[in-house]
From TrEMBL:
<dbReference type="GO" id="GO:0015807">
    <property type="term" value="P:L-amino acid transport"/>
</dbReference>
<keyword id="KW-0029">Amino-acid transport</keyword>
<dbReference type="InterPro" id="IPR003439">
    <property type="entry name" value="ABC_transporter-like_ATP-bd"/>
</dbReference>
<protein>
    <submittedName>
        <fullName>ABC transporter ATP-binding protein</fullName>
    </submittedName>
</protein>
<dbReference type="InterPro" id="IPR052156">
    <property type="entry name" value="BCAA_Transport_ATP-bd_LivF"/>
</dbReference>
<dbReference type="GO" id="GO:0015658">
    <property type="term" value="F:branched-chain amino acid transmembrane transporter activity"/>
</dbReference>
<feature type="domain" description="ABC transporter">
    <location>
        <begin position="6"/>
        <end position="238"/>
    </location>
</feature>
<comment type="similarity">
    <text>Belongs to the ABC transporter superfamily.</text>
</comment>
<keyword id="KW-0547">Nucleotide-binding</keyword>
<keyword id="KW-0813">Transport</keyword>
<dbReference type="InterPro" id="IPR027417">
    <property type="entry name" value="P-loop_NTPase"/>
</dbReference>
<keyword id="KW-0067">ATP-binding</keyword>
<dbReference type="Pfam" id="PF00005">
    <property type="entry name" value="ABC_tran"/>
</dbReference>
<dbReference type="GO" id="GO:0016887">
    <property type="term" value="F:ATP hydrolysis activity"/>
</dbReference>
<dbReference type="InterPro" id="IPR003593">
    <property type="entry name" value="AAA+_ATPase"/>
</dbReference>
<dbReference type="GO" id="GO:0005524">
    <property type="term" value="F:ATP binding"/>
</dbReference>
Length: 238
């Protein structure tokens, strides 16, 4: 495992006066899969939105991508540097077909042979290839999740940020998402996932953090957290 691709130091995030993330520090190493676990409302989505400078969140602290600060960067600049996002609820457009979602997001990769492009997404996911002319929002939940992942991949990112990929999809699609995450790190893409689904997080990630009320209360290997029933109960209520 390489050096840090994403490093967050002492992050504090606010919606107006509401102080949501408190002194959050975390690292994703190059080609690592990291999960941030937490119950509803603990600040998981806010963490990803703070990294991407989305919405009206006041962010203090440092976000570094490959050692370079993103503190002053705009969302589109952050995306261009190689950080892609699969939002909670997918945020697809009714007016765009499946294919158009991929074409609009496509940014050529460094190597033509290895890049993610719409055709490669369709080869990997024949179920959305068969529906390429259909509006993205007319797909099933699982297919919309796959399209949202495909849309992120065709930007040829170095790291993928995923917000609750387990939400609204069947266990069969969950299994595919987990397999895909493993394939992606083998193919050069690091992963940061925020989840409340413990099983998905533990099957995807090598390391986990747990957020409670906007603070990191646990950091360790997925293997250790799987064995630590007491912390699971204390922090996640499972
Ligand atoms: N736009 C907003 N304005 C004000 N407060 C917000 C906003 N979005 C989220 N919050 C608050 O910030 C806190 C963290 O929310 P966040 O969505 O990050 O949690 P989460 O862990 O992702 O939960 P969920 O699993 O429900 O998405 C919550 O108390 C929430 O009510």
């Amino acid at each position: 495992m390489g050096e840090a691709i994403l490093k967050i130091n002492n992050l504090n995030s606010y919606y107006g006066k509401s102080h949501v993330l408190q002194e959050v520090s975390l690292t994703v190493n190059s080609l690592e899969r990291v999960a941030v676990l937490g119950r509803n409302g603990m600040g998981k989505s806010t963490l990803l939105k703070s990294i991407l400078r989305l919405q009206d969140i006041k962010v203090e602290g440092d976000v570094l991508f490959k050692g370079e600060t993103l503190n002053q960067a705009k969302t589109y600049e952050i995306a261009k540097k190689g950080i892609a996002y699969v939002p909670q609820g997918w945020l697809l457009f009714p007016s765009l077909s499946v294919e158009e979602h991929l074409l609009v997001a496509y940014r050529p990769g460094k190597s033509k042979a290895k890049e993610w492009n719409p055709e490669r997404i369709f080869e990997l996911f024949p179920e959305i290839a068969a529906r390429r002319k259909v509006s993205g929002t007319k797909l099933s939940g699982g297919e919309q999740q796959i399209l949202a992942i495909g849309r992120a991949l065709v930007s040829n990112p170095e790291i993928l940020l995923m917000d609750e990929p387990s939400e609204g999809i069947s266990t069969m699609v969950i299994d595919r998402v987990i397999d895909l995450c493993h394939q992606l790190t083998e193919q050069g893409i690091s992963i940061l996932i925020v989840e409340q689904n413990l099983e998905l997080a533990l099957r995807v990630a090598q390391r986990v953090y747990v957020l409670v009320n906007g603070r990191i209360v646990y950091e360790g290997t997925a293997e250790d957290f799987r064995a630590d029933k007491e912390s699971q109960h204390q922090f996640l209520g499972v």
